[in-house]
Fold:
Amino acid sequence: MLVLTDQATMVIEALVGRSELPEGAGLRIASSSAQDGAGDLSIAAAGAPEAGDRVVEAQGARVFVEAGAAAVLDDKVLDAERDEQGRVQFLVVAQ
Structure:
Protein backbone atom coordinates (compact mmCIF):
# COMPACT_ATOMS: atom_id res chain seq x y z
CA MET A 1 0.00 0.00 0.00
CA LEU A 2 1.15 3.54 -0.74
CA VAL A 3 2.83 5.24 2.23
CA LEU A 4 2.82 9.01 2.79
CA THR A 5 5.81 10.82 4.27
CA ASP A 6 5.31 13.47 6.93
CA GLN A 7 6.21 16.13 4.37
CA ALA A 8 3.65 14.81 1.87
CA THR A 9 1.02 14.76 4.61
CA MET A 10 1.66 18.41 5.50
CA VAL A 11 1.59 19.51 1.86
CA ILE A 12 -1.63 17.59 1.12
CA GLU A 13 -3.37 19.08 4.16
CA ALA A 14 -2.25 22.58 3.14
CA LEU A 15 -3.39 22.16 -0.49
CA VAL A 16 -6.76 20.67 0.35
CA GLY A 17 -7.34 23.08 3.24
CA ARG A 18 -6.94 26.10 0.95
CA SER A 19 -9.49 24.87 -1.55
CA GLU A 20 -13.26 25.08 -1.33
CA LEU A 21 -13.58 21.32 -1.14
CA PRO A 22 -15.80 19.63 1.45
CA GLU A 23 -14.50 18.11 4.65
CA GLY A 24 -12.93 14.74 3.95
CA ALA A 25 -11.50 15.89 0.63
CA GLY A 26 -8.06 14.83 -0.53
CA LEU A 27 -5.81 14.41 -3.51
CA ARG A 28 -6.64 11.86 -6.19
CA ILE A 29 -3.94 9.99 -8.09
CA ALA A 30 -5.02 8.46 -11.38
CA SER A 31 -3.23 6.73 -14.22
CA SER A 32 -3.56 7.24 -17.95
CA SER A 33 -1.98 5.06 -20.60
CA ALA A 34 0.38 6.71 -23.03
CA GLN A 35 0.65 5.59 -26.65
CA ASP A 36 3.70 3.48 -25.93
CA GLY A 37 1.85 1.58 -23.19
CA ALA A 38 3.63 3.31 -20.34
CA GLY A 39 1.38 4.87 -17.73
CA ASP A 40 1.47 8.45 -16.55
CA LEU A 41 0.15 9.51 -13.16
CA SER A 42 -1.84 12.65 -12.52
CA ILE A 43 -2.69 14.21 -9.18
CA ALA A 44 -5.48 16.65 -8.45
CA ALA A 45 -7.63 17.79 -5.55
CA ALA A 46 -10.89 15.85 -5.18
CA GLY A 47 -13.89 16.23 -2.92
CA ALA A 48 -14.30 12.49 -2.44
CA PRO A 49 -12.98 9.20 -3.78
CA GLU A 50 -14.50 7.77 -6.94
CA ALA A 51 -15.91 4.26 -7.12
CA GLY A 52 -13.07 1.75 -7.00
CA ASP A 53 -10.51 4.15 -5.49
CA ARG A 54 -8.32 3.03 -2.61
CA VAL A 55 -8.21 5.57 0.21
CA VAL A 56 -4.89 6.15 1.94
CA GLU A 57 -5.00 8.23 5.11
CA ALA A 58 -2.15 9.52 7.23
CA GLN A 59 -2.35 12.11 9.99
CA GLY A 60 -5.54 13.60 8.57
CA ALA A 61 -4.37 13.75 4.94
CA ARG A 62 -6.32 11.69 2.42
CA VAL A 63 -5.20 10.35 -0.95
CA PHE A 64 -7.62 8.62 -3.31
CA VAL A 65 -5.76 6.17 -5.54
CA GLU A 66 -7.46 5.05 -8.76
CA ALA A 67 -7.31 1.29 -9.34
CA GLY A 68 -4.83 1.50 -12.24
CA ALA A 69 -2.54 3.78 -10.25
CA ALA A 70 -2.82 1.55 -7.19
CA ALA A 71 -1.10 -1.29 -9.04
CA VAL A 72 1.87 0.99 -9.76
CA LEU A 73 1.98 2.62 -6.32
CA ASP A 74 1.33 -0.41 -4.12
CA ASP A 75 4.92 -0.65 -2.83
CA LYS A 76 5.86 3.05 -3.08
CA VAL A 77 6.23 6.11 -0.87
CA LEU A 78 4.70 9.47 -1.77
CA ASP A 79 6.86 12.42 -0.76
CA ALA A 80 6.56 16.13 -1.50
CA GLU A 81 8.85 19.11 -1.61
CA ARG A 82 8.41 22.84 -2.12
CA ASP A 83 10.81 24.92 -4.15
CA GLU A 84 11.92 28.45 -3.28
CA GLN A 85 8.84 29.91 -5.03
CA GLY A 86 6.51 27.66 -3.01
CA ARG A 87 5.63 25.34 -5.88
CA VAL A 88 4.95 21.75 -4.87
CA GLN A 89 6.45 18.70 -6.50
CA PHE A 90 5.32 15.21 -5.53
CA LEU A 91 7.84 12.39 -5.70
CA VAL A 92 7.21 8.65 -5.80
CA VAL A 93 10.02 6.48 -4.47
CA ALA A 94 10.46 2.81 -3.62
CA GLN A 95 9.85 1.68 -0.04
Q: What stands out?
A: The mean pLDDT is 88. The CA atoms of residues 6 and 79 lie 8 Å apart. The longest strand covers residues 26-33. The helical segments are 6-18, 67-73.
